[in-house]
């Protein structure tokens, strides 16, 4: 609407006046997330990027760098189904954050069904990544293996990542979104393989390290019971979880 356009205009002008300001950048990115249309998001970012992102030629690499904005633009292009354009932006732009750049490139490659290339991209990034960002790259590597149907290899990768996250300590685990996604994917693989023992071990270990407000173990347990056709038990567990997670509306269960 008009109010969003005005707010975006003001945020864009503030950001362009001081592109190094994290506050201006955060405000701008937050408003961009409110744009309902993927294509409109791309157009808005094109305007904001100006000469940095507005061209898809080799000239981009010679322009002043706004690396986070360029990455955000490429991500918007991928969401809009313009993966080739996103890859062109990444080729022509030198990003300071090599891990983030590799993640964007690999996502575009996966969307284009070039998963072997995505594995190469992620593998090279993992080799040079620092500990703080390596886990996200490792998760994407395992997910790409899973998408290729290489479930055994994916399982090993997920298990290794899960072990590292757990060993990193409870404070890291609690704040790490990668842990939730890793547990979800591992649980799915164990269910498909009919490996109930490993699934139960995964749930037990996860409950030990996550905050009691984290609904993930309950979600996996309910899904597993449902997948086995044990619907009455699944419903009983879901009702108990709903009482524990009253603030989470996803646990609301309509009563007959």
What shape does the CA trace take? Answer: globular
Number of helices: 14
Total beta strand runs: 0
H/E element string?
Answer: HHHHHHHHHHHHHH
Helix content: over 70%
Distance between the termini: 41 Å
| Percent of sequence in beta strands | under 5%
Describe the 3D structure.
With 256 residues, this protein is an all-alpha fold. The chain is built from 14 helices and no strands. It has helices at residues 2-17, 22-32, 38-49, 67-79, 83-92, 98-111, 115-128, 131-147, 151-167, 170-175, 177-193, 196-209, 216-227, 231-244. The two termini are 41 Å apart.
Topology at a glance:
Blueprint: H1 2-17, H2 22-32, H3 38-49, H4 67-79, H5 83-92, H6 98-111, H7 115-128, H8 131-147, H9 151-167, H10 170-175, H11 177-193, H12 196-209, H13 216-227, H14 231-244
Helix pairs in contact: 1-2, 3-4, 4-5, 4-6, 5-6, 6-7, 6-8, 7-8, 8-9, 8-11, 9-11, 11-12, 11-13, 13-14
Essential attributes:
14 helices, mainly alpha, globular, 256 residues, 0% strand
Tell me briefly what this model is:
The chain contains 14 helices and no strands. The protein has 256 residues and is an all-alpha fold. The protein is globular.
